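Q: What structure does this chain adopt?
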Amino acid sequence: MVWAAFSEHSFTSLLRCDSAGSITSARYVQILTKQLLPNMQFLLPDGGHFQQDNAPIHTARNSKDFF
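A:
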């Protein structure tokens, strides 16, 4: 599994998620903290919206609390 974020302005590095089975919401928040937050100024310099689908790790309470 891989994770990345992109916008019209920039993109993050492709992160390889080595995990057996599914990624938990706790691991997802770790990924966002290490990969997304440091790049937000480049991804959305004028503000904007971070969009994701309704995957269970995206809608978990832990993930919602992060946002």
